[in-house]
Amino acid sequence: MNRRQSRVIDLDGVPLGIGAIGLGVLGLVSHDFAFQWQPVPASWPGHAALAIVSAVVLILGGAAILTRRTVLAGAGALAFWFGLWAVMLHLPVVVGAPSVASLLGLAEIGAIAMGAAQLLALRGGRRVPGWVQPGSRIVFGLCAIVFGVSHFVYAEFTAAMVPGWIPGHLFWAYATGACHVAAGVAILAGVRVWLAGTLLAAMAGGFVLLLHLPRVVATPSSRMEWTMMFVALSIAGAAWVMRLSTKPVRGGFGR
Question: Does residue 113 contact residue 76 with C-beta atoms inside 8 Å?
Fold first, then answer.
């Protein structure tokens, strides 16, 4: 990639953008929402039409954050859209039946929304309210802690997801859970955020490459496997953005 291309492409938004585009394409092809990550009741009027609208928002928003010229519009759209999923679809479930499982659903979508919100703050500079940058960082840190706690609570299930060729499945379930918690605490506290975000993004990216991608290759017709991969990639992308969340906000460049 030459220097001119690097000025056009927003490298920090690439993983998050590709994840959103992937989820959008799946929704467009299936005329459906994203399983438990987007639990829209089938009884809703215009269910298929709404699913297509949602898919288009994801595709356009994801594509927009790939370039510096359109990153503000894309980040704002994705922050709003994923935030709406979290508040309207997942938060009522947590309130009505609080559990680690329901919190995990909220945390997964919340983390992606906060990644988009952080990108909006970083690229929008002083045009974005000052509370967005620290607020999204704090919420993201809480989400990462929930990820870690779920690894301990559902250790056997997590261990079963580890590829068979990797020894010590239960060890990795606990180890990755501890890493999630450690990174979440660091990001929440604003301590060594660049390191914590980078390592968390690397770990989540490792999940995509070592766990989800082989499962997609093994069962390419499974929409569930594709969805899990793109959700994991989106979370990795959110962590990648979050590593910059203590960077001083200046004028921004998204115009």
Answer: no
Phi, psi of 41, rounded to the nearest 5 degrees: -60, 140
Query: Residue 237: phi, psi to the nearest 5?
Result: -65, -40
**pLDDT at residue number 42:** 87
Instruction: List CB contacts of 44: < 8 A, sequence separation 6 or more.
Output: 50
CA quadruple 31, 32, 33, 34: dihedral positive or negative?
Answer: negative
pLDDT of amino acid 249: 73
Show the low-confidence residues of the chain (pLDDT under 70). Answer: 1-7, 250-255
Whole-prediction pTM value?
A: 0.94
Tell me which residue of 243, 246, 182, 247 sits closest to 13, measured CA to CA.
243
- Alpha carbon distances (Å) from 79 to 16, 86, 155, 214: 11, 10, 31, 29
Residue keyed to tokens 């030459």:
2
Judge contact between 184 and 177, C-beta under 8 A.
no
Compute the distance between CA of residue 195 and CA of residue 200 in angstroms, rounded to an integer.
Answer: 8
Q: How far is CA 73 from CA 76, 103, 244, in A?
A: 5, 29, 19
**Which residues does 143 contact at the CB level (< 8 Å), separation at least 6?**
107, 108, 110, 111, 114, 184
